[in-house]
Write a structure and sequence with these properties.
By secondary structure, this protein is of the alpha/beta class. 37% of the residues lie in helices and 23% in strands. It is built from 31 helices and 38 strands. Helix 2 packs across helix 6 and helix 4 packs across helix 5.
Length: 878
């Protein structure tokens, strides 16, 4: 058994309409093609012993025990591995339920597809599921496999904690998602963009793009905080900052024991020691604090007596208060400290990392230091009722507990906390208080504010161990996106076999003319307005997200190709306008896309991603495209070169919108009414109405902009000012005059595209036509022959060259297929093979006759244009 490939789909995809995060593992089952229960003795029984929790998998029976029935009846190894991958994630605290296993067209090769919550964990689960299956298949003992299972699950838990959002970040993202605010994770930590384009806001944990840098610096400097608050009448404990050990004695004598020692610029309790009663302990605590201080300054403060409280203010409003208690155990007179810790950890609310409300208590250096201070060991038996605190801080992440005290907070304290938020100037602030209680004013009960925190954790408020959980994240989202403030920008997504790039560029041109800042992606690069940001084929989800992350972009126009959809899905959750140009034979036979129906299923991901208020703009003449309407959640509008097309007529009878080419006009149909936009001859892209495939692109772009609400005048201006050129439409009908002949560069790279080009150049008045043709290695034999057949009928002379993308084929086999097709054309053009790209172009230019049309079918538009430009420059120099 071999894992051939593991890839990740994010966003809408062609496997599931609901699950947006999927792992696809391509497996060669080799020796395990037979059903395991038929071949491996005791497989089913041992599987039940090792993973009894699989009992809950309903599978196709949709009832408990359904999967076990399938295995007992006989099912394939890939299907079993799929369920293992799902259950491994569930055992590691990530409950997922979607899975599919499908045999491919290659014998013995299967696609195992399953959902994930954390990508790296999902990828690990894929490999772990295969390892688990092989241990079962190879006859390892139940105990050995159970140990493997336990190790794999723990490794996945560790990995989950490394990569998942923390509770604070996760709660804000979850709250934003519930309000239909999209998010993009900007790094592997907690930096997150909420919203798209110009409407975006950013958070990093609980720091936001509204967090004031000066205020953060104040909060991180405990001496500055104490001075500022003290001068403003806020009760704070007496304290001093020191930097050398020799200052400790005089400082603690001035303050008096007990004291607290902590880093001047620390946070989250790191390096802090409380309850210090001796000079020896103070010296030790000084060095601990200094090791955690960037500035090496240390704060020594009088320790206040009472409970440890955290008040949280967002946008200057108190939203939650919690009382915190450090991790501790209570003696029962018979159990050792280690046994008490183990019993405490048996609480079902405790888990590894952040997986549950509380965290497991671990014995670390801080715990051991406390034990030594009490002259205890882990084997010490505590007296009945004796409380032993195991940590010096009350953080939930180290095993502490929290009790919600929001409703008990005295109004005067509410006023005080909100005033502190304004004094410090933080939009999200944690205020740490020591007081006998929070229900009496601090000025009366001797309590005080010991520090404030930028980026305070939310976990203690979201899920306290006692009391009401507070959805504090909602206040952050309210602050960033107040009522009426948008979070999204309009997204246009364009797909199809041919015409995508030109249509994308034309839509971008129209939208720019309407006053919008447009970001768009194409096969030749990503652009913001007319500025190219990156070059290359940028039609996948990474490029889409580049546009959506740009803070200047008001509208995104995204060319979306099959390759990106198959590899990774879409780069957004849904779009407003989806345009599907056509579905024609191209790249068939790759990634299990073998037929036009398969290709249509992949392309249909784009219109399926249209929002309920959006539009799918579909080609009424292409049945593979027209059929996509059945799975569109939004509205469907159609375009066609024929106003009498039955699908168009049916659309009109229903009073719906279409765009057609009629009597030389690009016309909007609104039910029975016609709105003529512009004559085709006035639209430069159509070459006087001769380029029918370009008219089709114009129809799609016009309709997409019209239903989006762009005015007819802006559409008209965009159409009539969009000039085909090497700058505006590289590789799309680019005419260049060279000496006394004409050169045409076009990216027609499949039979449908070549047929459209043939129809166009047949209308041009050139007596002789030469074509430079190359074949791409990822085409089927029949597609290459068809390319040769069409080209043979188009040109008087053909120059065949090696393509830039052989993709595993030999150049000889490509030449053979093309020549076979040329012979089938029956026209018998003059054929010459010039293998190298540069030599083939120069040969075509050198041998061109006066008045001839030379057509370069560009494999790489950029490379061919560079060769032609160099050739022309040499002519000028001569």
């Amino acid at each position: 058994m071999k894992i051939l490939e593991i890839r990740t789909l994010r966003g809408p995809n062609y496997w599931s309409g609901y699950w947006k995060r999927l792992i696809i593992m391509r497996l060669d089952l080799e020796d395990y093609e037979e059903k395991p229960t038929d071949k491996i003795e005791g497989f089913f029984e041992r599987m039940q012993e090792v993973m009894p929790t699989l009992q809950t998998h309903g599978c196709s029976y949709q009832e408990d025990g359904g999967f076990f029935k399938r295995v007992e009846e006989g099912t394939w190894a890939g299907h079993i591995i799929e369920h293992f991958a799902l259950e491994l994630q569930t055992l590691a605290g990530m409950d997922v339920g979607y899975g599919r296993t499908r045999e491919t067209s290659e014998k013995g090769i299967y696609n195992v597809v399953f959902a994930y919550l954390e990508e790296q964990v999902g990828r690990y689960a894929a490999r772990a599921a295969v390892r688990l299956f092989l241990e079962l298949a190879e006859g390892k003992t139940v105990d050995e496999i159970r140990q493997t299972l336990a190790d794999e699950v723990q490794e996945m838990r560790v990995l989950r904690e490394e990569v998942r959002f923390g509770p604070s970040t996760g709660s804000i993202v979850e709250e934003a998602t519930s309000r239909d605010i999209p998010y993009i994770r900007l790094n592997d930590q907690s930096l997150v963009q909420l919203g798209y384009g110009i409407h975006q806001q950013r958070i990093q944990a609980t720091t936001t793009n509204r967090t004031n840098m000066i205020s953060s610096d104040i909060a991180s400097n405990k001496a500055a905080t104490k001075k500022l608050l003290g001068e403003m009448g806020v009760p704070v404990p007496k304290g001093f900052r020191i930097r050398e050990e020799k200052e400790i004695k005089s400082t603690v004598e001035s303050i008096g024991f007990p004291v607290v020692i902590k880093p001047l610029d620390g946070n989250h309790g790191r390096g802090a020691t409380v309850g210090i009663e001796t000079l020896e302990d103070a010296v030790a605590a000084f060095y601990v604090a200094q090791s955690q201080s960037r500035s090496k300054w240390v704060m020594v403060e009088k320790m206040l007596v009472g409970g440890d409280y955290r008040a949280l203010c967002v946008d200057n409003k108190l939203v939650a208060v919690a009382e915190r208690t450090p991790a501790h155990v209570v003696g029962d007179g018979s159990s050792t400290i280690q046994e008490l810790i183990d019993k405490t950890n048996e609480d079902s609310r405790r888990g590894y990392g952040h997986e549950n409300v509380l965290t497991l208590i671990s014995v670390d250096e801080s715990t051991e230091k406390i034990l030594r201070a009490h002259e205890y060991t882990l084997e010490t038996v505590l007296q009945v009722g004796e409380i032993l605190y195991l940590k010096t801080t009350a953080n939930i992440s180290t095993g502490g507990t929290a009790v919600d005290r929001t409703d008990e907070t005295h109004p005067e304290n509410v006023f005080l906390f909100e005033r502190i938020a304004k004094i410090i100037g933080l939009d999200v602030i944690g205020i740490d208080v020591i007081a006998p209680n929070i229900s009496d004013p601090l000025r009366e009960n001797g309590g005080g504010v010991i520090e404030v925190n930028a980026a305070p954790g939310f976990r203690m408020h979201l899920a306290p161990s006692e009391g009401i959980g507070r959805n504090v994240a909602e206040y952050v989202v309210d602050m960033l996106f107040p009522n009426g403030k948008p979070a999204r920008i309009p997204i246009f997504a364009i797909t199809g076999t041919n015409g995508k790039t030109t249509t994308t560029r034309l839509i971008a041109q129209i939208l720019r003319g309407s006053g919008k800042t447009v970001g768009f992606t194409t096969t030749d690069g990503t652009y913001i307005q007319n500025n190219q940001i990156t070059s290359g084929d940028n039609t996948g989800p990474v490029s889409a997200q580049l546009v959506l992350k740009d803070p200047s972009v008001q509208v995104a126009v995204l060319e979306t190709a099959r390759g990106g959809i198959i590899r990774s899905g879409l780069g957004y959750d849904y779009c407003d306008i989806a345009v599907v140009m056509n579905v024609a034979a191209d790249h068939l036979g790759l990634k299990d896309v073998n037929t036009l129906e398969d290709l249509g299923r992949v392309k249909a991901v784009v219109p399926r991603s249209v929002s309920s208020k959006g539009y799918a703009v579909l080609n009424a003449e292409d049945e593979n495209v027209y059929s996509m309407r059945k799975r569109v959640s939004g509205k469907v509008v159609l375009f066609s070169m024929d106003e009498n097309n039955e699908n168009i007529r049916r659309q009109a009878r229903r009073g719906k919108t279409s765009c057609v080419y009629e009597n030389g006009f690009v016309t909007i149909l609104k039910g029975k009414w016609k709105v003529r936009v512009e004559r085709a001859i006035n639209i430069p892209l159509t070459y006087g109405g001769r380029a029918e495939f370009m008219i089709q692109n114009v129809l799609a772009a016009t309709l997409a902009c019209f239903v989006h609400g762009v005015s007819l005048e802006d559409i008209r201006v965009g159409l009539t000012t969009f000039t085909p050129s090497t700058a505006q439409t590289p590789g799309r009908l680019n005419f260049i005059e060279v000496k006394d002949f004409t050169l045409l560069i076009d990216f027609a790279h499949n039979p449908a595209g070549l047929l459209g080009l043939e129809s166009f150049i047949s209308k041009l008045p050139y007596a002789s036509k030469t074509g430079v043709l190359s074949g791409v290695g990822d085409r089927r034999d029949e597609d290459l022959r068809e390319m040769g057949r069409i080209a043979g009928g188009m040109f008087d002379k053909l120059i065949i060259r090696r393509g830039d993308h052989l993709r595993g084929r030999s150049e000889e086999s490509i030449f053979e297929m093309l020549q076979a097709g040329i012979e089938e054309s029956g026209k018998n053009p003059d054929v010459k093979i010039v293998k190298e790209t540069e030599e083939s172009v120069i040969y075509a230019l050198d041998t061109a006759q006066a008045g001839e049309l030379v057509v370069i079918l560009a494999d790489s538009v950029k490379v061919d244009m560079a060769i032609v430009n160099q050739y022309r420059e040499k002519l000028i120099a001569v």
